[in-house]
Amino acid sequence: MNRSHKILHIAAEAGTIILQSGGETYRVEETMLRICYAFNIKKADSFVTPTGIMISITDQNNQTISLVRRINSRTVNLEKVCMVNDLSRSIIPKKLTLDCVESKLKEINSTSGHKSKVLIVAASFAAGFFTLVFGGSVQDFLVSLVIGAIIKILSTALNNIRINEFFINSLGGAVAALIALISVKFNLGHSEDKIIIGSIMLLVPGLAITNAIRDTIAGDLISGISRAIEAFFIAIAVAIGSGLVIKLWVIAFGGIFK
């Protein structure tokens, strides 16, 4: 692999890590172009969508090469986004070599992030405190702690076997509604609505909505619309899951909310 090809692949790898970790479209393009120009590429162009990266470079010999990379999975790991962003900005000041950048990218990509137990505890407390924010009682808070942990365990397990996100969010909404209704039925909780609302906040596509707005404002209309549609379908999935459980409960027991 000659130098130009290596630069192209390194830039694409950096962009892939950012996009898979929840980074904005403009940040992916900016980072890839910064890496290319840091290694004296004559001209570079990139086009990024939430599911794909296209980058083309022209070297000093006027040879143009391109690369297309498909993005199949996306998660949220802003630490990786920050690390790749910092790396791209430090190439010129620190005079990093291609091999050094490639090695650091592999190291960043292999970073596992927080342990599952930490994420489960964080999700549990997030659901609990959201319930309090929406006016829930201490009983509702305790029920939401359990629901938050269960939702995180289920979503992690299903993501590991690559189950469709729509199904995962539907199941999460259904679990939140079912446990909330059962807890109030047996006087373990006080308000079904507060528990459900607080718990499903874990599933709300906040990052997707934020990136959709940011990309649209930046002029990346395709990415902005794609992320907005993604957020819309996540919301629909959560509504279907929780709504179906509530409807079945009403049919079976005649009513809910006090």
TrEMBL record:
Q: Tell me what topology the record assigns in the membrane.
A: Multi-pass membrane protein
Residue ranges spanning the membrane: these are: 118-135, 166-183, 195-213, 233-257
- According to its UniProt record, where is this protein located? Cell membrane
Where does this chain mainly localize?
A: membrane
Whether Transmembrane helix counts among this entry's keywords is yes
Q: Where is the Threonine/serine exporter-like N-terminal domain?
A: 10-248
Signal sequence annotation: none
Which Pfam family is one of this chain's hits? ThrE
The protein's UniProt keywords, in alphabetical order, are:
Cell membrane, Membrane, Transmembrane, Transmembrane helix
Q: Which family does it belong to?
A: Belongs to the ThrE exporter (TC 2.A.79) family.
Q: What is this protein called?
A: Threonine/serine exporter family protein
Source organism: Clostridium ganghwense
